[in-house]
Amino acid sequence: MKKRILLMILAVGMLLQASVASAACATEEDHRYGSWRVKTSATCTRQGHEFKYCTRCDHWEQRRTPKLPHTPDQWVVTVEPTCVKKGRETATCTVCNNEIYRAIDMLEHAYGEMTVTKEPTCTQNGRGEYVCGDCGKKKSQSIEKLGHAWSEIAVSKEATCTKTGKGTKTCQRCGRESDIEIEKVEHAWNWGVTREPNGTKKGEKTGICAACGTEKKEYFYWEGTLYLDMTPCAEVIRMQEKLKDLDLYHGSISAGAVGKYGKLTAQAVENFQKANGMKATGVADPQTLEAISKAWEAKTGKTDAEMLNPQEMENAAEAQPAGA
Ligand SMILES: [Zn+2]
Ligand SMILES: [Zn+2]
Ligand SMILES: [Zn+2]
Ligand SMILES: [Zn+2]
Ligand SMILES: [Zn+2]
């Protein structure tokens, strides 16, 4: 019993002592260190040793600092490098007097010219080899295959406008043959007008191939005819300008869509034709265009030559902002 009490007193005493010792710094964060102090300086043969002390308690920390580099007097090559082994340089440290070493990188292999060990063919890669003159090391390299050297096509069956032809090309190196299909040729059209254009109705022309007799029809107006929804062009602008001067056309004159032959234009042409005893079609065939020109010249006293030429008109129209 007495012994237990004694032990308890001892334990309490130890606890008290511990709390006194760490009174100032209860946890790691509480320490307040001064700066590191050098106890032993580092040299080229020995690590340094530094301490810092807590200003609140008797705790301290230590650390090692790395060795300093040696101070070589002069590097001397003691082992020459080769293409298979590193070399070595040696010097003496002026501080510690020890011999110090450093490696010299290996040299590149001294490869000579390539020797072909397997010739490439049309379809298979070849191989070449390099040898190091110093160590005998070999390095292999692929040589790109050559591809076939095709001849001109020898035609065995001529192509027509209905059937493809046949031919053969031959490799001048390996003799390999390859069959070639030759594309059909164009039909040789002979065109004839089978119906003339009449008013709003386009004419019809028929083409017959002289070689195979194939027939094809196309619909057309005579050259120089202007008509509804045709591809816009400057000729339409010239006609619109004249119809405007004749007080028949009141639509816009194509900025944006250059010389567009729209419904208003067709109506103006139709009105002109009615007023001049012509068949009212709204299609400006060459006859109608000539009549418009004449009427315009009579009214304005101007001539066609005084108008801008079609190219100038197109340029002028394109220069205007769209919708103007
Ligand atoms: Zn402390
Ligand atoms: Zn040294
Ligand atoms: Zn080598
Ligand atoms: Zn070949
Ligand atoms: Zn044909």
Summarize the structure.
This protein has 324 residues and is of the alpha+beta class. The protein is built from 5 helices and 15 strands.
Q: Describe it for me?
A:
With 324 residues, the chain is of the alpha+beta class. Among the domains are: 109-147, no CATH class; 150-184, no CATH class; 189-220, no CATH class; 234-319, Muramoyl-pentapeptide Carboxypeptidase, domain 1 (Orthogonal Bundle), CATH 1.10.101. The chain has five helices and 15 strands. The chain has helices spanning 2-21, 234-245, 263-275, 286-300, 310-319; strands at 37-40, 48-53, 60-65, 76-79, 87-92, 99-104, 115-118, 126-131, 138-143, 154-157, 165-170, 177-182, 189-195, 203-209, 215-220. The protein has a three-stranded antiparallel beta sheet with strand order 1-2-3, with no helix packed on it. A three-stranded antiparallel beta sheet has the order 4-5-6, with no helix packed on it. A hairpin with a 7-residue loop joins β13 (189-195) and β14. The structure holds zinc ion (5 copies).
Let me know the average pLDDT.
Answer: 88
Please give the number of β-strands.
15
Based on helices, strands and strand pairing, what is the structural class?
A: alpha+beta
Through-space gap between termini: 120 Å
Could you say what the CATH topology of the domain at 234-319 is called? Muramoyl-pentapeptide Carboxypeptidase, domain 1
Task: Return the CATH class of the domain at 234-319.
Answer: Mainly Alpha
Q: Describe the global form.
A: elongated
Radius of gyration: 52 Å
At CATH level 2, the architecture of the domain at 234-319 is: Orthogonal Bundle
Main sheet properties: 3 strands, antiparallel
Unreliable residue runs: 9-22
Oligomer: single chain
